Amino acid sequence: MKTPLFWFRLLVAVGGIANLAFALPAFLYPPFLGELIDVGPIEQTVWLRNVAILLVIITTFYIPAILDPFRYLFNDYVLIVGRFSAGLFFLVLVLTAGYPGGFLVLALSDLGLSTVQALLFMFVLRDGDPRFGQPGGYLSGRARA
Question: Is the alpha carbon torsion for 101, 120, 131, 1 positive or negative?
């Protein structure tokens, strides 16, 4: 049976792949995103290319979280909160500012993925680091020394 740690690592990797799947076309050919999802016309591409570069940089911080989530707890928290914040931001834009429906796709995917990651991370912390065999994990107040 797969553990919450396995699923958490897998979903962090899926999130990283999703980031790169957005960032690479955004950097190399931004109008493609306008064709792929309804985000409206993309006339000025400098800002989108800058976002793509930042997204690639952020995604590199997923690697330590995948390799050793217990050692890089800060990365774990930031990637979950960051993805949730991005999803919430896109949702607010669609609901209050009349942004195109393509942003709703981004919002729901980020909100959904971050919510599942957060739930899995809670179980990961509850179970503790399997290398140390401590039942109760971080949520029980017994962190590793």
Answer: negative
